[in-house]
Amino acid sequence: MSRKIQGASLTSSRVLMVAALTCGFWFSSSVWTAAVAADAPATVDDLVSALQRRYQDIETLQAKFTQISTSLAMGEVKSKGKVQVAKPRKARWETMGANASLFVTDGTKMSIYTPAMNQVMVMNDMSSAGGGSADIMGLLQDLSKLDEQFEVTMRPDDSAAESHVVVDAVPRKPGGYSKIRLEFDRKSLDLARVVFSDSMGGTTDLRFADLKLDVKIGDDAFQFTAPEGVTVIDGGAL
Hints:
- The structure is a single chain.
- The chain is of the alpha+beta class.
- The protein has a single domain (3-236), classed as outer membrane lipoprotein receptor (LolB), chain A (Clam), CATH 2.50.20.10.
- 20% of the residues lie in helices and 40% in strands.
- It has helices at residues 3-29, 44-53, 133-139, 146-149, and strands at residues 60-71, 75-86, 90-96, 101-105, 109-114, 119-124, 150-154, 164-171, 177-185, 191-198, 203-213, 231-236.
- A twelve-stranded mixed beta sheet has the order 7-8-9-10-11-1-2-3-4-5-6-12.
- Helix 1 (3-29) packs parallel to helix 3.
- The protein is globular and about 55 Å long.
- The two termini are 25 Å apart.
- The model is unreliable at 1-12, 31-37 and 128-142 (pLDDT under 50).
């Protein structure tokens, strides 16, 4: 397997995990808001309560992201892209660059298109699946259960803590990742950074910018039709 194709394969699996988890977080909490918190949460309970209070009637959002992925097989890979989210449970996560990929879900069906491999994997949306990342998607529907399934630790002494609320979340049950790091803007509680650490020693570091709320996003953004000649793989329910 060439380095390019191998990288695309690794990217495809990470797209599934990272896009599902990050978009799941947005679906549940709507932390993207212009409101300013009077005081930054000091405890896990304070943070969960603050995120719940911040739930707004936001229907759509879009943002740009930069991503740095590291793995033993590929070393460090940098990419960038755009994410669009609409309720209920619709998302489009487009990564550009050498390891380009596209994750699309309309809330019922997910498609992961990897141009370098000339293939698209189609499967049931994670909300109808069980186990693994699907359980996390369910968890993120209700952040009040955050500390029930994660060992959550506030990091007030972290180097980023001057401007951000930093949290480490370790799953209580083994899965495809070992830890998630979340950074929220200390004043607005905007989600600024997410770092996923997987069980193979790899990491995916995401930073977000140019947030836009309640922009018009057509339903066609959450539909995917495979280009002619692309292999379609039926992934079923995960």
